[in-house]
Amino acid sequence: MRLKNSLLCVILAISTAAHALESGPPPVLSPMQQQAQAAHLSAQFLTRFHYKPVPLDDTLSAKVINRYIKSLDPEKFFFVQADIDQFTAENTKLDDAIYHEDLRIPFSIFNLYQQRIVERLTYARELLKQGFDFSQKEDYSFVRDKEPWPKSEAESRDLWRKRVKNDWLRLKLAGKKDQAIRDTLGKRYENSLARAYKYKSDDVFQIFMNAYATSIEPHTDYLGTSAAADFDISMKLSLVGIGAVLQERDDYTTIRELVAGGPAQLSGKLAVGDRIVGVAQGDKGAMTDVVGTRIDDVVKQIRGAKDTVVRLDILPADAGPDGKHKLISLVRNKISLEQQAAKKTILTIKNGDATRKVGVITLPAFYEDFDGRRKGDKNFRSASRDVAALLAELKKEKVDSVLMDLRNNGGGSLTEAVDLTGLFVGKGPIVQQRNARGDVNVEGDDIPAPAWTGPLAVLINRGSASASEIFAAAIQDYGRGVIIGEGSFGKGTVQTMVNLDELSHNDKPKFGELKMTIAQFFRINGGTTQLRGVTPDISLPGFSDPESFGESSYDNALPWSQVKAADYTPVGDVKGLLPQIQSRHDTRVEKDKDFQRFQEDVAELNALRKKRVISLNETDRRNEMNQQEARLKARGKAGAGDSDSKDKDAADAADLNRQDDGLQANERSLSAELAAEKAQKSAKDVLLNEAAKILGDTSDLLKANPKFAMQPASGKDK
């Protein structure tokens, strides 16, 4: 798992904050004894109990080292060929080293990686002191994953010269002046350089162990103590904190969003853009300065026990660096991560003179409060319980049909996938599992009657994986609803969490956890969702790249296979209506300007993906930019007569968002970044609207052909 700047939904962002550069070489990191013990224990488990047991030998050692190097330097910007030769000389030693609890090999690789970061970025900053000649005809290979490693330091420096030149040209084309470009890039490289001084031993171990785990199979992972805690939080949808999305921006931990109903929002004392410069515990605890501190460390200080006090030293959003601070006290409380929970909306779809109400339920994850369920908490949170409540509300609002939006739902609890399917098909088998011994077990739901028997559709994309695929596949096999969108991810494997500390009887978290593949999913029709995923009944275009995203993009994915079909009876026959549904969809989108724009965007993106080299000549790049602007202007004129202004505004916003400003996310203003995200969401709505129209067609056809609808044998609506 590579360390990246990324948001952890609703409460924190785990990214690396930049600060004023430290002098001297980066710290030399060394493994701790407990890490070596955890690696040894993990190896024992993975070789004995994994669904695909792979011995830790010389062959696997070579794969692990290669994957580890790739995770550190995927685009080959930092190491040179001599470094790689040095690393691969250790290929046959890693397995023995792990069993002897010796992690010097991965740590020595990482320490050289830190050294190379400092060398390359120091050189990049030096290049900013000079200008560049953009009249020259030269190209830059900006996608380098398949390129050879630089053969020498001179070749590496020339690569970085082109990289900096391209960064400069992008800002220049966006209208930035030379000094502003120097300032922006100087800060960018300084921030990147500062990260080399902030890595910890735990970071190195996490990256290495993930390289080891994923070398066996793509969905096997190692989670250190911090990562394991975050995984537990994401599944429970709750934690104790202040209720704020935090993000690193220009050395500060910045409030990006306030969670409705959380302590931060209810206090009325915090606003989006406020910067946290200090954290103190309790009413009298000493204030700790957190400027320049890694954001995950800041989050650890803000989290705490329920009903305890945390004090924050705040630099207001509208204050300058020397502005007046304010000190606020907040009482920590249990925060529900509502933005990951199921939500409903109602879309009104017109079809000729008829108007239909489509209830849309968006489910980002199959979450479940495992502890709450085990303890018998009557109000524990889970995806199926929340969706059941939303279905009851939609029925009261008299919707004609229900659309389950599972786009980018990466899965979660298997139990929840089964229970959620039961809400729509009633009692019966949902999914089959085969373990490492070859035993096949059928998982089903015993709900006496479905919660919704009306028209149903499921919207999926390439990001719909695991539990999402179980649900979509079962709905498809039962003939219960129409599956719409892109082909799904193709993750048909079952993982379990192995707590290494519990196995070792440790009193405190020390060794972390393994997420280990132990079984494989199969549809009730006998085929697996592994590798091939779920093929939609009605396909919609999407931005995903199957060559780089999805199960088929992994070089060591488990193959597709098949078992005997389960004993089940379809409850409907939506397939019988698919030709008519497809025909209506095709006719409609031919006249839908917004949908046509979306298809053009997808085609353009696919063409750009094939482009791995870009010109560093200013005239050539301006010509490309002018062609793009001309295309967008022509599109705007063509759509000027559209009656649906809302959809047109969404498309225009998406177009605007694609204009290259040469900036990285944390270099834009917070308001600009949030506006860009809103525009991206608007682009997604084009597909959602069409999916709702497809479901509207389905409703009409089911009403005219009731024999294809869900039969009452499964019970009446609850």
UniProtKB/TrEMBL annotation:
Signal is among the record's keywords: yes
Region described as Disordered: spans on this chain: 618-682, 699-718
Matches recorded under Pfam families: DUF3340, PDZ, Peptidase_S41, TSP_NTD
Protein name from the UniProt record: Carboxy terminal-processing peptidase
Keywords: Hydrolase, Protease, Serine protease, Signal
GO molecular function: serine-type endopeptidase activity
Compositionally biased tracts (Basic and acidic residues): 643-661
Family membership: Belongs to the peptidase S41A family.
Native source organism of the sequence: Collimonas rhizosphaerae
Entry EC number(s): 3.4.21.102
Signal peptide feature range: 1-20
Keyword Ligase: no
InterPro entries, alphabetized: ClpP/crotonase-like_dom_sf, PDZ, PDZ_sf, Peptidase_S41A, Tail-specific_protease, Tail_Prtase_C, TSP_N
Domain PDZ: 232-309
Gene3D superfamilies from the UniProt entry: 2-enoyl-CoA Hydratase, Chain A, domain 1, 2.30.42.10
